[in-house]
């Protein structure tokens, strides 16, 4: 019986596949990694046996093998009802998810210059699934789309206006699917309609961004033209003085080396000199490692400054929400961040925070806190499956 919705997330060297039933319950997921390399691997989540891939397997081959494995294991019977794809950049063209046809593909290609590392591989995933399932409706769900509601004062940079008009230089924002899910979940937890719920949503994983959501809509966000702006991240610097480029050029550092430094060698990794893994950094800091402690301090202070900044965008606030691997799991990061925000009347409950809000309906704030603070596990795959169902009219 055909009752599955497939969610495809193809990255530069990996592809993740999730399988939902038509009621949006997750049935299985799988991951193929190190694609286009001799040691490409694949695995169904929770299964110890690796899945054999051809040597140097590419995205198309990996997807084919994963689909065959789902079929052999009877997780997928027949064709899926719909396929949802994560697509990183939708530019100004896509304000919401879109059914994939020739025009959609052309429009995704057109904005690929804004996300050269992501959109082309997202398209490889789309084309691979079109070959495998030519008659199944496919839907593109964009990381940027949710932020298309930003007012112009929030998305324009103070640059000559032709930069925007000729080259599309503006703030686009990312992690939109996760921030959208946060406001839906926060609304449910607070028993309010989502379109009347206003939150500050902090998505803290290896990539980090924060969004001000007013009455269900994104109205300000920390990531910009690219996912490099804003908060300190695992290996990305977040905000730096734009004068840095000129200064480093004077030191003989090339533009491509500055790009590599800001994207791959900075953030928690750069500050600590050890790792981009927050859990390891917390363990090292606990043992007295000073660079690890500094990395956590800079991360939390920058985050607190951004939470403060986001209040300038909002008319009211129902909750501050933490999500992502760090936001959901690191009581230390939440505590150290909120400590900076006593002027806003934000207060943690140490015990609820330590339990990550698991016993308290996701709340980690003290009863006297001016605004509730919540931890909510993100679920971008679920949103993509829901959007695929909606647009495929299931
Ligand atoms: P993500 O990209 O959402 O998977 O998040 C990855 C980040 O979450 C890494 O920095 C992990 O170290 C961090 N993380 C996951 N679990 C924990 C934990 N229990 N404590 C602190 N950080 C964690």
List its traits.
394 residues; alpha/beta; 8-stranded mixed β-sheet; 5-stranded mixed β-sheet; 17% strand; binds adenosine monophosphate
Map the helices and strands.
Blueprint: E1 4-10, E2 15-21, E3 26-33, E4 41-44, E5 50-51, H1 59-72, E6 82-87, E7 98-99, H2 102-110, H3 119-132, E8 138-142, H4 152-155, H5 161-167, H6 176-190, E9 199-204, E10 208-214, E11 217-221, H7 243-250, H8 255-264, H9 267-272, H10 278-286, H11 290-310, E12 319-323, H12 324-329, H13 331-339, H14 350-354, E13 373-375, H15 380-391
Bound molecules: adenosine monophosphate.
Adenosine monophosphate is lined by residues 205-206, 234, 277-279, 282, 324-326, 329-330.
Textual characterization of the structure:
38% of the residues lie in helices and 17% in strands. It is globular and about 60 Å long. By secondary structure, the chain is an alpha/beta fold. It has 15 helices and 13 strands. The mean pLDDT is 96. The strands form two sheets. It has an eight-stranded mixed beta sheet, sandwiched between helices. A hairpin with a 5-residue loop joins strand 4 and strand 5. The chain binds adenosine monophosphate (AMP). Adenosine monophosphate binds next to helix 10 and helix 12.
Mean pLDDT across every amino acid position: 96
- Structural class, judged by helices and strands? alpha/beta
As a whole number of angstroms, the C-alpha radius of gyration is: 21 Å
Helix content: 25-40%
**Order of helices and strands, N to C?**
EEEEEHEEHHEHHHEEEHHHHHEHHHEH
How is the main sheet built? Answer: 8 strands, mixed
Q: Looking at the chains present, what oligomeric state does this protein adopt? A: single chain
Unreliable segments (pLDDT under 50, ≥5 consecutive)?
none
The number of helices is 15
Strand line-up across the major sheet? 5-4-3-2-1-6-8-7
